[in-house]
Amino acid sequence: MSRNLAGTSPPHHAAHPLTLWLITDDKPGHRNQLEGLRRGFERRGGVDAHWLSAGTPGAALLDWSLGRFPAGRALPDPDLVVVAGHRTHLSGLAARRARGGHLVVLMRPSLPTWLFDACVIPLHDDAAGDDRIIRTHGVLNPMHPGAKSPGSAAILVGGVSRHYRWDDDAVAGAIETLLARWPGAVLTDSRRTPAGLRGRLARLAGAHYHAWEACPPGWLAATLATAETAWVTTDSVSMVYEALTAGCATGLIELPAAAGNPGKIAHGLAGLERDRLVVTFSNMLATGHAPTPTATPLAEADRVAALLAPLAANTRP
């Protein structure tokens, strides 16, 4: 089976749309990755995308063993079957066996990589060398730069995680300093933000505070598209890469690493700082230098779509 994942190919145009089957476990983060790749292909030209829900592992294993995939019965044969989330792997294998196409996983898979035609894996997951692997800066996301509003900023607050030691007082103190410098900054939190801190954030930001559960679908993408600057707590690694993809000048509100944690997330963020893609809050305090936008925003979904295009083309007669 041919795997030309090293180069790029010219944009695909709509005379024969690329057929994508996107198999989801309906977790928002995994669905965002799939949507990011779908948009990457869409920007290349015609795409015919179909969303399917993953079956239970037992049902998917049975479908694979019988060479069937009932969920796709009424759909055109796929060029690419794309999965994200451990629960989607067996459904993807069943879909490929029943209907053909190439199988792509958007994560470090829980099954051997040789079962997939391509594995899109973030650099911080430190995957072993394999010609099936495409390494990316962070997970794919659907962000895209828009027209920036001069002086605008967004502050994105995460919460308790196994990678970092959370500190309400340190985070609130940093945000108070940032709001003094960017007084109109939009501030939002997440489902992981401690309840006590959420009240403090609402008092600090006033009308500019947006509780995560009150934000409509697409709010974050629209906000980052127009924000000139974004500050993100380091536990929210996906939002760091989303801010960079949206073309924001990106700053990190640092948290200490959790004891005993291998530090792969922190290592990846340190690499972004070395490459001058982000500025830490402590560095800004020490030097006075605020974050600046990168010359070229991250566009990993577009890059991955270009790398996968030859693979998809190999399904055509």
Short account of what is shown:
The protein is α/β, with parallel strands linked by helices and 317 residues long. The chain is 35% helix and 19% strand.
Question: What features would you describe in this structure?
Answer:
This protein is of the alpha/beta class. It has two domains: 18-140 and 300-313, 3-Layer(aba) Sandwich (Rossmann fold); 149-287, Glycogen Phosphorylase B (Rossmann fold), CATH 3.40.50.2000. It contains ten helices and twelve strands. The protein has helices at residues 28-44, 57-66, 89-99, 168-181, 195-205, 219-226, 237-245, 264-274, 281-287, 300-313, and strands spanning 18-24, 47-53, 80-84, 102-105, 118-122, 133-136, 149-156, 186-188, 209-210, 227-233, 249-253, 278-280. The chain has a six-stranded parallel β-sheet. The protein has a six-stranded parallel β-sheet with strand order 9-8-7-10-11-12. Helix 2 packs parallel to helix 3. The longest helix is centred in the N-terminal third of the chain and has 17 residues, at 28-44. The model has no long low-confidence stretch (mean pLDDT 91).
- Total number of domains: 2
Q: Beta-strand level of the residues, as a percent range? A: 15-25%
Shape: elongated
Roughly what percent helix?
Answer: 25-40%
Please tell me the CATH architecture of the largest domain by its name.
Answer: 3-Layer(aba) Sandwich
The Rg value, from CA coordinates, equals 21 Å
Determine the CATH superfamily of the largest domain. Glycogen Phosphorylase B
| CATH class category of the largest domain | Alpha Beta
Question: How is the largest sheet built, in terms of strand order?
Answer: 2-1-3-4-5-6
Give the averaged pLDDT, no decimals: 91
Give the total of beta strands: 12
